[in-house]
Amino acid sequence: MLQQVVNGLTLGSSxxxxxxxxxxxxxxxxxxxxxxxxIYMVGAFIGxxxxxxxxxxxxxxxxxxxxGAAVVGVVVERIAYRPLRKAPRLAALISAIGMSIFLRxxxxxxxxxxxxxxxxxxxxxxxxxxxxxxxxxxxxxxxTSVGLxxxxxxxxxxxxxxxxxxxxxxxxxxxxxxxxxxxxxxxxTFAIGSALAASAGVLIGMNFNAVDPSMGMMxxxxxxxxxxxxxxxxxxxxxxxxxxxxxxEVMGVALLKSEWRDAIAFGILALVLLVKxxxxxxxxxxxxx
Amino acid sequence: xMISPYYYQLLVIASINAIMALSLNLVTGCAGxxxxxxxxxxxxxxxxxxxxxxxxxxxxxVSLIAGGAVAALAGLIVGLPTLRLKGDYLAIATLGxxxxxxxxxxxxxxxGGPFGLRGISKHTNLALAxxxxxxxxxxxxxLMNSRFGRALTAIREDEVAAVAMGIDVTxxxxxxxxxxxxxxxxxxxxxxxxFRYLHPSSFAFAASVEILSMVVxxxxxxxxxxxxxxxxxxxxPELLRGVSDFVSRHRMLFYGALLVIMMLVRPQxxxxxxxxxxxxxxxxxxxGFGRLQSSKLGQWIAAAMEKVHxxxxxxxxxxxxxxxxxxxxxxxxxxxxxxxGVGRGGGEENAGS
Lengths: 289, 353
Prior knowledge:
The structure holds two protein chains of two kinds. By secondary structure, chain A is mostly helical. Chain A is 73% helix and 3% strand. Chain A is built from eleven helices and two strands; from the N terminus they run ααααββααααααα. In chain A, a hairpin with a 2-residue loop joins strand 1 (126-129) and strand 2 (132-135). Chain B is mainly alpha-helical. Helix content of chain B is 67%, strand content 0%. The longest helix of chain B has 27 residues, at 169-195. Chain B is globular, with a radius of gyration of 20 Å. The model of chain B is unreliable at 273-293 and 309-353 (pLDDT under 50). The chains are: A mainly alpha, B mainly alpha. At the A-B interface, helix 4, helix 9 and helix 11 of A face helix 4, helix 7, helix 9 and helix 12 of B.
């Protein structure tokens, strides 16, 4: 049981990292960034390349993956979302889906469909106490996630750009009247969200020792589920939602058959959307004409 | 008239795709509700019809109708709760539903699971598929000119305004969803009895995206659009197969790019020029569209569209049919709003819910 809690925490914290990107982008643009799961995949591939081919140590590979994915995120925003900012929502949404499919199949064309191994570039120790087994990599996942989330919290609440982000999320027009460059803030938001997704991509890629072009779809959807569960637009909500979803999934698999694993997340999504669409920590946004 | 088996097959697939595109268009194009799990309804219809004829020896015609009915029922079950959700939530919910259906088919005994369903006899022919497509097209024209169709357009253009006009929004959306699912189910039945083999992967997310690409390419909300989109996207990969192997192998890569480019350059689709498009008045303001509108090609298409377009359309790009409905409220789509369309902003707050 305790073992499941540990597994749930590690899985959940990586979902939380993905969910943060969704939530931040939704906060400033009211757009579900469908390509987010693909950014996560791209991040994993960049990390793999840096670690395997360039032979860089873990931390360096991680930083490069995050920086690379941030660039991809900003480019995606510039090409597919910015021109549609004043267009109907349906247009932006379809553009986002198109971008997601494009990125996934671009990776497929460039890297090939095979799954690549992504070994952990350092020795993993196992700690065993009683029936509980924790690997040093689990600890690393938890520490990295918590560290990144604390960093994000600091960024959003204590820095000038964070204040600009919050202002933009509140009201874009007023923010621009206050001298905030809304375009730059939105690009920055995409960069941060993408970097977080890339970190999750590297961590999960190493944890399962597998990276492939379609790896982004399920974690992308689950990251979104986590964001909705916690309340889309709320940063603490995304963290909470991620952990809860990871727990629920691990527990669900322990109780049910593992083939139904993915159905659990969607079941939760459907339930949350029906009962409390604003999520646990989300604000209820009034739809205006 | 003799045509080679190759083109015969292409035409059958194009007809089935046209039914799929037309039915998705009712929900996404006409009512403005993005559904990303449409292929799942096709899958439900295909498996229902296929199992009925191959396992229970039910007549083909009955199995087709049963497939449509079961898909419609699924549409009702999915639609009732999810259609209360706003646009992007609905997209995710339908995507999730589609995946659940695929996982369910994969784990069920009677469907053959990952081995697929075999031994379905061949009943579908071109005459039948084409007739079905024409029938669906005809129903769509009747539907879109009806009170119900206009209600759907009103919902697409402005849901709050539609509510203010006394339209039962949820009922209309669910009804559109159910009709759309039923047609997709029939298309699935035709599909099953043409290919005689079914596999869950045929009805996965990629298939839903393919159908969406057809609708978007042709023109959301128009009636000819989805049909043209279906024919073009059925034929294009075959055409390109000869030109370049890379293109036909990475079809999805181009579908993805196509969706983005269409949204950026021509969101109303190939033939949507004269149609009361996706909030055409607002769209004409943003980049790309205006340029294309004023270009020779754009004018030519618009002129051509005006000639062939079904009655009731005004033919000019900035007068939506909806304007007739809501102008009395003075919050029509074209009233000088900058239309951020993102929930807040937009300046028209007099009808806040």
